[in-house]
Amino acid sequence: MLKNDYGVDKLSHTYVEARYVLYKMDHEELTKNKKVAQSWLKTLTTARADPDTKIAPTRLDWGIEQVKALINQIIELTRTVFKGPSI
Question: pTM, whole model, 2 decimals?
């Protein structure tokens, strides 16, 4: 379908991964795992640095900011859970 309708012969792995991360974020399928979130950040940052990417830079910037905020939420939640009750 992509080849016939849009003339797309191939898609880079980075492009596909970045689209997948953005799709998950759009549909609020957020991770609670810090390592997964960091991998998402790396994927979006790599896609942002790629001059041949077909994803709008503003969209990638939005995704990067959202993932950074998600990582901060995970860190804060972890601190709260492991802080425990004060004596």
Answer: 0.81
Q: How many domains does the chain have?
A: 1
Report how far residue 6's alpha carbon sits from residue 81's, in angstroms, rounded to the nearest whole number. Answer: 49
Instruction: Write out the chain's pLDDT in tens, 87 residues.
Output: 555 655 666 778 888 899 999 999 999 999 999 999 999 999 999 999 988 888 999 999 999 999 999 999 999 988 887 776 655
The SS3 assignment for 63 reads helix
Query: Dihedral angle at the C-alpha atoms of 67, 71, 73, 75, nearest 10 degrees?
Result: 180
> Which residue is listed with tokens 């802080």?
83
The range of the structural domain enclosing residue 54 comes to 2-83
